[in-house]
Amino acid sequence: MAVLHSAPRYASNEGVRDTISAALGEHLIAAEEAHGELLFTVQRESIEEVLRLLRDSHDYQQLMEIAGVDYPDRAERFECVYMLLSLTKNHRIMVKLSTDEATPVPTVTTLWPVAGWLEREVFDMYGVLFDGNTDLRRILTDYGFEGHPFRKDFPLTGYTELRYSEEEKRVVYEPVELAQDFRTFDFESPWEGSNYVLPGDEKAAIVPDGPPQIDKPKVTQSPRETGAGKKANDEAAKNTPANPPAMDEKGKKA
After folding, report:
1. Domain spans of the chain, in order of start
2. Residue 173: how many CA atoms within 13 Å on its side-chain side?
3. Distance between CA atoms of 102 and 146, rounded to whole angstroms?
4. Rg for the chain (alpha carbons), in Å?
5. Which one of 2, 136, 191, 229 has the lowest number of neighbouring Cβ atoms within 10 Å?
6. What homologous superfamily is domain 16-138 in, according to CATH?
7. DSSP secondary structure letters along the chain
8. In the beta sheet, which residues pair with residue 99?
9. What's the rounded Cα separation, in Å, for the pair 190 and 198?
């Protein structure tokens, strides 16, 4: 028996961009469609009002995720991206805003309680502050962790490392100690025009005729080039008996 649903299997973006843009009005900074997804950039201070409007008037009932992005070269280096789902329309949109390290973003825990955990993740990983979140503390990193790991300027090794100490019978924190220095690798291929001297290249200067010409293979066209001839035959005949031992033994048996 076939089951029919009110929501289409694949929802179209047709008309959604213009409808939502008109509804957001002065709160909207930009609207774009890329890779089949709709993205609306809004004023930071308006995020709660914008999401409430999308939830109550446009049927985007669920907040699926809040993601952070870091652009260190920008004055407002962080972006917060809110991903919404409409169950009745089977459609998704994204809403984003920009902020910096010191300017808090209004919380949306008043709309979706689950936003509390999502905002804590963005705070933990990027250091973005959320005004109105009453439980804004780390959620993924350990107690006493320094810094925010998803920032582009956060060192790859971090600042501290932890291990279990057999002497103290507990987990201890210590400054990061690398077993060896970071190595620098040269990824320039020697077959594609490298401009430095490779090991062994110095031998080319010793050869009188220079390096071998791969497009002119060496051939031996005369006995002089092979070393063959009367002189070589006479040298090979020295200390060689006229009749090899095998022939003498054969003669005796006969």
Report:
1. 16-138
2. 8
3. 17
4. 38
5. 2
6. NADH:ubiquinone oxidoreductase Nqo5 subunit (3.30.460.80)
7. -----SS-SS---TTHHHHHHHHHGGGEEEEEEETTEEEEEE-GGGHHHHHHHHHHHS---EEEEEEEEE-TTSSS-EEEEEEEEETTTTEEEEEEEEE-SSSPEEP-TTT-TTHHHHHHHHHHHH---EET-TT---SSSPTT--S-TTSTTS-TT-SEEEEEETTTTEEEEEE---SSPPP------TTS---SPPTTGGGGGTSTT-S--TTS-----SHHHHT-SHHHHHHHHTT--SS-HHHHHHHHH-
8. 78
9. 8
Other CB atoms within a 10 A radius of the CB of residue 147 amount to 14
**How far is 58 from 95, CA to CA, in rounded Å?**
14
Q: What are the tens digits of pLDDT across the range 117-171?
A: 999 999 999 999 999 999 999 999 887 788 999 999 998 888 888 889 999 999 8
Tell me which residue of 106, 114, 131, 127 sits closest to 50, measured CA to CA: 106
The answer for residues whose C-beta is within 8 angstroms of residue 152's C-beta and 6 or more apart is 70, 71, 72
Residue 246's pLDDT is: 58
Answer whether 40's CB lies under 8 Å from 27's CB.
no
Q: Are 84 and 93 in contact (CB under 8 A)?
A: yes
Determine contact, residues 138/112, Cβ cutoff 8 Å: no
Q: Write the CB contacts of 61 (distance below 8 Å, at least 6 apart in sequence).
A: 55, 85, 86, 87, 88
Read off the amino acid at residue 220: T
Token pair listed for 142:
């350990």
Look at 60-74, 90-104, 192-206 and tell me which has the smallest mean pLDDT.
Answer: 192-206
Kindly report the pTM of this predicted structure.
0.65
